[in-house]
């Protein structure tokens, strides 16, 4: 979710007392420069293929939905089309809803859940809502199983006018859609690798000390502190609880360092932090956080949890529009 708090298991080499953690790129206490960025990129091999895993499913769905190429990324000789699917006819009399996945490319169920929703459940909402779905916002990160983009930037803190292309292209797509959005749900995961890799990498990149945290075991959601919709969030949590377990608070009644405001719910000021869920200005927004590394959850359950969350969000928003 966010770079600081929605990454949270303690890895080998980390000390809870000192916050010391050796990351193999950079010098302790010094932010990365161009050489360190190049070294980091060289340590990120392609581990799966966007053009094999994601694009063919989008192409198959294009028989039912309009495929939109809303941008293109050019990174180190590699090219990625940014793809979305939308209802072929946007009815001005219906509300708009956005589903996003893969803002952090390594959060697999966000991508697969968005696609599975389109394949299995989206037809249930035909004639009720105008759907726009961007299944994989960060394809370079998807291929490297990384939260960052090619430039070691976390898209989910940078949805603003001067953000990276992954972010600005999605903002432009949303602005091209006529009429306001009623609902936006952004599909994420909190993984063990947040603590073993990505937060140490962030500390090294920024020249900061790494302070270990704990990974919450279970599903939770993030509400907007500036536009609280507690009943909406609880409807999502209640539906997902039938699929997978909900993350309990820690001994300080927090999840990832943030106070728990209700069962499975924390809050962030979405717009202030330039998070993806803020880009539509929708009345109903939620960021899901699935825990795929749990001993009590399978990949299929994680995908199902995301699909269930999308459906619960749509059902609530449409009922209370």
From TrEMBL:
Pfam entry (one): DUF2817
Top-level taxon: Bacteria
Domain Peptidase M14: 46-321
Family listed: Belongs to the peptidase M14 family.
Official protein name in the record: M14 family metallocarboxypeptidase
High-level lineage: Bacteria, Pseudomonadati, Pseudomonadota, Alphaproteobacteria, Sphingomonadales
């Amino acid at each position: 979710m966010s770079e600081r708090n929605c990454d949270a298991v303690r890895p080998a080499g980390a000390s809870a007392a000192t916050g010391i953690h050796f990351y193999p790129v950079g010098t302790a206490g010094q932010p990365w420069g161009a050489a360190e960025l190049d070294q980091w990129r060289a340590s990120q091999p392609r581990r799966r293929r966007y053009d094999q895993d994601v694009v063919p499913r989008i192409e198959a769905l294009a028989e039912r939905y309009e495929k939109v190429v809303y941008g293109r990324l050019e990174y180190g000789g590699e090219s990625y089309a940014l793809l979305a699917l939308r209802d072929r006819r946007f009815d001005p009399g219906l509300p708009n809803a956005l589903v996003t996945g893969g803002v952090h490319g390594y959060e697999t169920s966000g991508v697969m859940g968005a696609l599975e929703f389109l394949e299995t459940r989206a037809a249930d909402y035909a004639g009720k809502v105008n759907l726009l779905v961007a299944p994989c916002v960060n394809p370079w990160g998807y291929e490297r199983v990384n939260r960052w983009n090619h430039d070691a930037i976390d898209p989910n803190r940078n949805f603003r006018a001067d953000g990276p292309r992954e972010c600005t292209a999605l903002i432009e797509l949303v602005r091209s859609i006529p009429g306001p959005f009623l609902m936006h749900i952004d599909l994420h995961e909190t993984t063990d690798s947040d603590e073993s890799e990505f937060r140490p990498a962030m500390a090294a990149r920024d020249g900061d000390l790494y302070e270990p945290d704990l990974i919450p075991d279970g599903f939770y959601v993030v509400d907007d502190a500036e536009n609280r919709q507690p009943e909406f969030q609880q409807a999502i949590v209640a539906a997902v609880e039938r699929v997978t377990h909900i993350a309990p608070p820690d001994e300080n009644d927090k999840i990832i360092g943030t106070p728990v405001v209700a069962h499975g719910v924390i809050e962030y000021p979405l717009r202030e932090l330039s998070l993806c869920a803020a880009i539509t200005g929708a009345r109903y927004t939620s960021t899901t956080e699935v825990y795929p590394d749990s001993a009590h959850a399978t990949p299929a359950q994680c995908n199902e949890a995301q699909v269930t969350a999308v459906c619960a969000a749509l059902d609530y928003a449409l009922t209370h529009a």
